[in-house]
Amino acid sequence: MGVYILGIESSCDDTSAAVIYDRKVLANLIANQDIHKNYGGVVPELASRAHQQNIVPVIDKALRDANIHKNQLHAIAFTNGPGLLGSLLVGASFAKSFSLALNIPLIEVNHMHAHILSLFIEDEQHKKAPDFPFLCLTVSGGHTQIVLVKDFFDMTVIGQTIDDAAGEAFDKAAKIMGLPYPGGPLIDKYAQEGNAKAFRFPHPVVPGLDYSFSGLKTSILYFLRDQLASDPIFIENNKNDLSASIQKTIVDVLMKQLKKAARQTGIRRIAIAGGVSANSGLRKALLHEEERGNWDVYIPKFAYCTDNAAMIAIAGYYKYLRNDFTDQQVVPFTRYK
Length: 337
What we know:
The chain is α/β, with parallel strands linked by helices and 337 residues long. The chain contains ten helices and ten strands.
């Protein structure tokens, strides 16, 4: 008999609910919070309030879209961290109450582990899942990590950012250019029409397999400050080339350490996950390595790149098979563990 899992994701500013049957997604709903565009970034207090407004309608619609009754659910999986505490509390509180009312198991899920396990969602268009072990570059607005994945729940971070995440670098560079939030997707869009070699920005020198992006943001800030002093419309006239050059720099930095990790571990199965895995420049760079015969590459479907509850549900599914449940005393955590 198959297993129905309800997944709940509320780690940042998207309220998401999904229902899966074994590894197949029956519904995956996301309620976005446009209010943050007015502030150039996520405002935690506003995010938690919006989650409270959205969570019941989103879960109700997910169950209806999946065409199942709540009593058919076998377990409820929810994001327990890392993320914004107020946002996490909304999802965790609902999940606890719902599991208690239905008398079914409660499963806590690590948000970053779930991004990686999204690669195992069974989909008609994306049936290719990696064998173990593999390396996964998880890149988002809050995290940048190279993870050695030996099993569904045996994961070791072998490289990570020592300051800012790659997604944050994209968004901050976009903000410096005067682009609206979230700016990362806009840089990707404008980069399609630009010359990636038009401008050069320095690459950080970091030991081991770690990353650093704070210096890149500073160099972009100073470069544009100097250019605008002599040409007030420099950004507008060079928006596409600037976007392409910034994107190429960030992708090159990500790829350099990932290639080093592949050489050091001898692993050729390489995956990406997280919000920045939707970036076209990063996807092209990985697929280029696969075309050259260097790697076997695994890239999630676009719908499972950004924060979504389907990835929480699939992680919950594998935990359910292990009887890895939690109780009502579980509390959210804000930092990666």
